[in-house]
Amino acid sequence: MAALLHLQDIHLTYGTTALLDGAEISVSAGERLCLVGRNGSGKSTLLKIAAGLVEPDDGRRFFQPGTTLRCLPQEPDFSGFATVGEYALAGLGPSDDPHRVTYLLGELGLTGDEKTGELSGGEARRAALARVLAPSPDILLLDEPTNHLDLPAIEWLESELAGMRSALVLISHDRRFLANLSKVTIWLDRGQTRRLEQGFGQFEVWRDGVLEQEELERHKLDRKIAMELHWVRYGVSARRKRNQGRLARLGELRRERTEQRRVAGDVNLNAAAADKSGTRVVEAKHATKSYGPRKIVDDFSIRILRGNRVGMVGANGSGKTTLVNLLTSRLAPDSGEIKPGANVVMASLDQDRTKLHPESTLQDVLTGGRGSNIVVAGQSRHVVSYMKDFLFTPEQARTPVHVLSGGERARLLLAKALAMPSNLLVLDEPTNDLDLETLDLLQEMIADYPGTVLLVSHDRDFLDRTVTSVLMAEGNGRFVEYAGGYSDMVAQRGSGVAAKSVAAAIPQKISGNAAGPKAVSSKRRLSFKDKHALEELPRRISSLEAEIAALQKELTDNSLYARDPARFAAIMARLGEAQASLSGLEDRWIELETLRAEIEGAI
Asked: Can you give the pLDDT at residue 301?
């Protein structure tokens, strides 16, 4: 199939650094590509070159005549437009339907009358999406389209893009979004592109294999250089022509080794830990918070224990931030009670990056303007040394914040938050603008963190990988806790965040409708299989609990790993399986017991 857009051998250098060094992209009609790579690798720049907004130093851009293209920038420019409606309509071509703008703005929660100078980050992103989606172009270039969107908007956008005929090129940190939409993966790595004819779901295994092969080749080259050096030093000095040839070959090998561009190092994410908190970190009893006539949090109760990782999900404006502020004692409830635990020391990462003063330098942000040293985990470190842990160069210490990319600002806020000793970590949208590798490390840091974590996120995959329970904003100030990650919550509710009610899942308990039990009993009865399961599940649960206790007791032997690593690995594997099975059995028992109680209550 002929390409609608083809970038060939693209080169671009900033200063002395080659950002793009022979990059290529080919986009055919209807193709679904994702463009992935580290922060700062040049993904956004390559997308701008594809859109014709940036001119490369060298290379060829072919664009099929008559093809329509729209590009979603990370930071849309609203200058010259008074309202969102004017801005979105300006993206239409002569033959495009203006009614589609009205439809898209409505689906995205906008009227079109919003003033462009008063938009939040989420509203700006929605307006920009309406502008580029409305023409249904042949090619859509989308740079971080899910940033600042809540889960209902992300899932709506997935559905809308899946139904469009446009070819897509996506840049996103949202793994599930990429996996659901992409069919081809372009990896931008050290200035060059590699193409995988599969979607993002297969990318990470393939990438790891490529990097392992590179490391093997580098090891072989090192050995070859060592052998040549040994010959130069200790070989026979006769046959001078041959000697000169081998010396020239050694020089070539050394040049090859020097010119190899290694993968950039990983961010070193380690949260500075404070002393342990008490077992109970915070307890809420019937807490309520209202603003005017609207209840933001209504009759909320929870007990969060040390080591819990609690995720909070819901539409924008559903009260997640207010609930976090109540649980962390930044706000007092109107009624009810919030009891913080003993010895709780909190560190927080705020999603509002506008609080970073644009003229402040990286050093001043990290040290608070107090010299060149920063205290991390009780020890004084030079700020440049600490910056290197987050992939900042020494030269950037005096760099003002306003020149940083979105990903660099995200890393700077992480560096500031993780330097503070804590045993309660509050993360509000930590995944925005982070590359996939840094997300992996952040996930590992949360898993290893010895304290408690409160996490607000719209990233479904990240929630699945990090939290032990999810607090879902069900509407009207009501929050319900579900065991497991986001996918587990969807399985228990029967629907995701976009759903307005869980009444269908648990009619009597959640909806409070007096007719609920009768409706359930008329539609469903306990089958023989359900009755048998209710009798058997307690026995199976007890058996698994006993097995888990025995396995955990065996792990208390501190010498087990050194003495018998295979046995240690087998115990860890079985322990994970048993705990997962126990969670599943408990969920099933609760479901059946709830149904039985509802049916009996209706008789």
From this structure: 94
